[in-house]
Amino acid sequence: MLFHVVTLFPAMVEGALGHSILKRAQEAGLLQVRVHNLRDYTHDRHHVADDAMYGGGAGMLLKAPTFFEAVDAIRADTAQRRGQEAAQKLRVVLLAPGGRTLTQPVAEELAREEELVLLCGHYEGVDSRVEQSLATDVLSIGDYVLTGGEMPALVVVDAVARLLPGVLHDVNSARDDSFTTGLLQEPQYTRPPEYRGMRVPDVLLSGDHEAVARWRRREALLRTLRLRPDLLVLADLTPAERSLLKAMGWRPPNP
Ligand SMILES: C[S@@+](CC[C@H](N)C(=O)[O-])C[C@H]1O[C@@H](n2cnc3c(N)ncnc32)[C@H](O)[C@@H]1O
Asked: Which structural domain range is residue 194 located in?
């Protein structure tokens, strides 16, 4: 999958991509990230990409033309590599606090794309014409405000990349993750078997795979009830699991 990240601060994005799983995925050719510097699409001597706001107000806004021209260049390149239709259908995602919240299902949806453009705002944000007629999607990573879209773009790249075939060594590790099943993941342990008086549950050392699977499901249910009971409303639960949760104190909105 190919990501284009359009930013005024390329080093913020590049630095984070050169490590661990994302680095290996790029080296293996499973993931490609092209970082585009907004300054390359300015036309003045000082390469200024921001300006004061019309109507007054504190802070600077990133100008629309640089984003439009950067996406024009990306589209032209896509058209050459994959044809006009792919270029026209390219999804252009503006990172903004007011956008649709990134969730696991949204990451799964984006992972089905072959190529994705991520636009990073900065300072007070981006001229609204980018949202109105350049972006196909507006995405937020949560209800809080960061200084720029670079970290949100990296969050999107990371959440999507780990869903691509081959990026994680074991395909099951993504399949069993929190949210993927509709529940949180069960508690997990590694060596040593006992630490400061805390023992790993005996069943995990038993070698009985069916008993382990049953324990994992039950613990995932109970952990979800404890930490994120809101998820249980949409989770796929058997009648026995619903009874267990109710016995443990769950009060579903529509019992
Ligand atoms: C300080 S923010 C701008 C906030 C904007 N003035 C507002 O109130 O909606 C600067 C940039 O950071 C990025 N950003 C900040 N918080 C974000 C979030 N929760 N999700 C996605 N992007 C975010 C966006 O690209 C945004 O243009």
From this structure: 176-247
